[in-house]
Amino acid sequence: MPRPPALRRCAGAASGRRALAAALGLALAASVAPGRAESRLRIPVVDTPLEECPPPDPACTGPDDAIEPDLVVEGTFPRSLQGSYVMLPFEVPAGTTSVRIRYCWEDGGHTVDLGIWQARPGKQPWGPAEFRGWGGSSHRDTTITPQGFSPQSTYEAKPKCHVPGRTTRGFVPGPIAPGTWAAELGVGAIAENDADDSANFRVEIELSEDPAFAAVPYVAAPYDATPANPEPGWYQGDMHVHAEHSALGDATMAETFDFAFRSREEGGAGLDFVTLSDYVTTTGWGEIGGHQKAYPGKLVIRSSEVITYR
Fold first, then answer.
1. Cα–Cα dist 290/200, whole Å
2. Are 194 and 119 in contact (CB under 8 A)?
3. Do β-strands 179-189 and 85-92 pair in parallel, antiparallel, or remain unpaired?
4. Which of 150, 147, 292 lies closest to 224 in space, CA to CA?
5. Which residue blocks in the chain are alpha helix, DSSP H?
6. Is the pLDDT of residue 97 over 60?
7. Whether pTM exceeds 0.70
8. Residues 151-182 pLDDT 10s
9. Which of 118, 156, 265, 292 lies 20 to 30 Å (CA to CA) from residue 186?
10. Where are the alpha helices (DSSP H) in 182-269?
11. How far apart are the C-alpha atoms of 77 and 239, rounded to whole Å?
12. Residue 75, CB half-sphere, CA atoms under 13 Å: how many?
């Protein structure tokens, strides 16, 4: 029987503004994959609090980057949980317009990934309908709102920083359903050279009811599925490329497509098609349609790279 992660939950400083119906039971759900039957882990309380999570990037120190968590979860993952997915349930009240999660883990070669799942039906396991995105370990400060992603210029200036009211790339914008959400922590690696065979982690959750964060609901750009080039022939392409929805700070979709479709004489790859295969997300699919007109006769195929620890 694997040793469970030690856990400490506490209401954050912002809880005085509003009563948060937090799930404070000392139990977490762990499963090989969300949507399958869950096993329950009994969690001993951690007495020593961890430090606040730092900003995800040195550039993220402005007023908008400050976080006032409604709920903080701190704990320790033993090496026996390496390769597991641990669901941290939390309650989201009706009227919420933004769910923000900042998380961190101790140094030393460990890796902890992040996914987010919206309210599930009753006590059923979270399934595909509740999936709101996965950022791996690159998305350390993530927000989901009904609105879309930040403007391209804002993203390029500070790709890893928080933008109030905007959904983080790699996560699904849309209505914030009330009920039991979950922060999914993927225990990707617990370093073997760690003295105590474990990694400490901290999760900070901030909820907002600001109506401005739902003022302009996201609408995906229509994808043109007509043949890019109806003529038969040999075509050159790349079946696996990534852009900004894979990892914050990666090449943008415009940069990726510009290079792919620019001729070799002009320093590009000279391709006829590419397959956009961002990590464990389809959020880039709703943005492809906004780029297609800039590349007549070229094809962008929608795909996704699915990653597991098995």
1. 42
2. no
3. antiparallel
4. 292
5. 152-157, 253-261, 285-288
6. yes
7. yes
8. 999 999 999 999 999 999 999 999 999 999 99
9. 156
10. 253-261
11. 36
12. 29
Predicted confidence (pLDDT) at residue 197 exceeds the cutoff of 90:
no
User: What tokens does 268 get?
Assistant: 């590009």
Give the CA angle between residues 282, 283, 288 to the nearest 5°.
95
Which two three-digit tokens encode residue 26? 């000392």
**Could you tell me which of 249, 223, 240, 54 has the C-alpha nearest to residue 170?**
249
**CA neighbours within 13 Å on the CB side: how many for 219?**
3
Judge whether 250 and 170 are in contact, CB under 8 Å: no
What DSSP designation does 160 have? Answer: T
The DSSP call for residue 55 is P
Mean pLDDT of the chain: 87
pLDDT digits (tens, 9 = 90+) for 26-48: 345 544 344 444 555 544 445 45
The beta-strand segments (E) located in the chain are: 6-11, 27-31, 39-42, 71-78, 85-92, 98-105, 111-117, 131-136, 141-144, 179-189, 198-208, 237-241, 273-279, 299-305
Amino acid identity of residue 252, one-letter, is T
Res. 288: pLDDT tops 70: yes
- Torsion, Cα of 263, 267, 268, 269 (10° steps): 90
